[in-house]
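tool_call: predict_structure(chain=1)
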Amino acid sequence: MSHVRKQIRDAVATALTGLTTTGTNVFKGRYFSMQTPKLPALLVYTTNEDAELSIMGSSRGSDRVLTLVVEGYAISKTIVEDTLDQIAVEVEEAMASDYTLSGLTRDVRYTGFELDANADPEQTVAVIRLIFDIKYRVAAGDVETAL
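tool_result:
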């Protein structure tokens, strides 16, 4: 088994593999060499987590909110924002189609996006960061099993 955070990243990467624009170019982790043949592509990673102890009867648990980022990369000689918006459509709809990630989480909520692009006049490489809050629960002392 692995930490529920890793299970969540794996589940999201699986859910996003095969989208029309990015296809199988889905990579787990924030650091990956984005070479032109691999674009457009997605990166899936987590940035931070808040946890709160909760007690129900005699059982102790930890309610958690994990920040998950899906970065979409695209390259274009024209308006790259159009491709990034299409990536956003596909990712947001895929994430909304199973807000519990097959029972692994309690909720998946889209919270916003950020956009960055280079200023190369020959071709623009740009990235959209789609940010999600993932709510899940684990038992105290067992962070490999989602409750």
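agent: Strands lie at 26-28, 41-56, 59-76, 107-117, 124-139, 142-146. Proceeding to next step.
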